[in-house]
Amino acid sequence: MTTPDASALYTPFQMGAIELRNRIVMAPLTRNRATHGTDVPHTLNATYYAQRASAGLIVSEATQISPQGKGYAFTPGIYSREQVAGWKLVTEAVHAQGGKIVMQLWHVGRISHPALQSGGTLPVAPSAIAPVGQKTFLETGEFVDIGVPHELTVAEIAAIVDDYRVATKNALAAGFDGVEIHAANGYLIDQFLRDGANHRIDAYGGSVENRLRFAKEVVAAVVAIAGADRTGIRISPVTPFGDLADSDPPAVFFPLVDFLSAQQLAYVHVIEGATGGPRDDIAFDYAGLRKRFAGPWMVNNGYTREMAIEAIASGYADLVAFGKLFISNPDLVERLKTDGPYNELDVAHMYGGGAEGYTNYPALAESAPALSSSSR
């Protein structure tokens, strides 16, 4: 069997104001290794990202825009002076290797717990609806159920939009090449979009136009600081994460992408199918959605090397994001040229801890156990 030509993945690409040396993206990957108590990035994080800087673009792990935006223990923030300084270690290390990196801006909304919130307050959401069967984990290592959140007032919504604005300023001050708005995976922006989580009867709920309002306000706030050509957004039209559902996803996401196209964002990052799960268990016209956006299109979720090559070569996508393969293969860009070999993923050390399962994966030139070429 002939190995597909991977050259399509290695052509340079202009993504808004950011020039990329290839079409391979390191997806945002939560690893829960920020400094305990302060959520500040540190030198080990800088090493981890620098190891993977051969990617055309790195999208940072999801980073909370405020203490309220936190949903899991040991995730990093971008709201304090110390966090900005810690992230500078990361961006300088990536840039020293010739890489490009954008920060993913995150507010988890209801996917949190009072123990993770300042003063033990309730997590927030568009409506006081608990996600069924969803858990998070605390600094004690305990997994806990998520309860009913506090329904945001209009004034509180405005304050969160401002938090996005400040976080964008901080990300640029930390040296990031741009930002990605996390509007996927059942977190706060996604909660506003879906009628299963948003039961509001004011200007932020009910009609599709109203449910889009918060997302549009966040985009406007971020673009006002970073510029549209340094702003991307991540969406997941059908992912069920966080017990999220919508009665008519195309009716929500097609007009959302129309709006994003009109804003001339640097890119749209689309998770096809269930995040980290099946790609085709829920029908959705991703090709039709792609046609609604005039700018760079990034695809994600379960892409193999062959699928990635076809997506770029056919013009369906401009960029392909890889997740777990980038965790275990810091030099994935090089390995994709020949389809492996690929390192085994250390599942036991995915979340939390130190260097093990984080910065100790060997590069291709080093001796390493490997999986077959089809491994993910």
Summarize the structure.
By secondary structure, this protein is of the alpha/beta class. It has ten helices and 15 strands. It has helices at 43-51, 81-96, 154-173, 188-193, 208-226, 249-262, 286-291, 305-313, 324-328, 332-338; strands at 13-15, 18-20, 24-26, 57-59, 63-64, 101-106, 124-125, 135-137, 143-145, 150-151, 178-182, 231-235, 267-271, 297-300, 319-322.
Instruction: Please indicate the percent range of residues in DSSP E strands (runs of 2 or more).
Output: 5-15%
Count of runs of 4 or more consecutive helical residues: 10
Named CATH architecture of the domain at 33-272 and 281-300:
Alpha-Beta Barrel
- Topology-level CATH name of the domain at 33-272 and 281-300: TIM Barrel
Q: What value does the Rg take, in angstroms?
A: 19 Å
- CA-based shape: globular
Low-confidence segments, given as residue ranges, are: 367-376
Number of strands: 15
In helices, the fraction of residues equals: 25-40%
Quaternary organisation: single chain
Element-level helix/strand string: EEEHEEHEEEEEHEHHEHEHEHEHH
The CATH top-level class label of the domain at 33-272 and 281-300: Alpha Beta
Terminal CA distance: 20 Å
pLDDT average, as an integer?
95
Record the strand order, biggest sheet.
3-4-6-11-12-13-14-15
Task: Specify the CATH homologous superfamily of the domain at 33-272 and 281-300.
Answer: Aldolase class I
Strand count, sense and closure of the main sheet?
8 strands, parallel, barrel
Structural class: alpha/beta
